[in-house]
Amino acid sequence: MLQLDFQKNPDGxxxxxxxxxxxxxxxMLAYLxxxxxxxxxxxxxxxxxxRSRQEIWVKGKTSGNLQKIQEIRVDCDLDTVxxxxxxxxxxxxxxxxxxxxxxxxxxxxxxxxxxxxxFSPEKVYAPKPPSQS
Length: 133
Known about the structure:
Elements: E1 14-20, E2 26-32, H1 34-43, E3 47-50, E4 55-58, E5 67-74, E6 81-87, E7 103-105, E8 111-113, H2 121-124
Parallel strand pairs: 1-6
Antiparallel strand pairs: 1-2, 3-4, 5-6, 7-8
């Protein structure tokens, strides 16, 4: 298995640029640690290290919007990857948009939403009621 250079960054993480495999649109930027890198290759699913939660997460495990890896590209320094994926459900962003880059910066410094929401985060991530057994 190819070994990435996780030691180059002090946090031991490697950036992963995630693109739509058909259109090339950048869907998101995530980070891989050694375990996430190995899981991406083993499972074929976009699996990352969450810097905020400090844990491994499979993209779409909660929402159903999984990322099926079609191709992995590695840069010349072995410290950045591009994952070309099939984005199941059409949304990579936890805010319900196809891409995490759904806003553009205007000359006046404001942001404009330039994509349409695919799902409502409030409905997808709402707490589930306890099951009755």
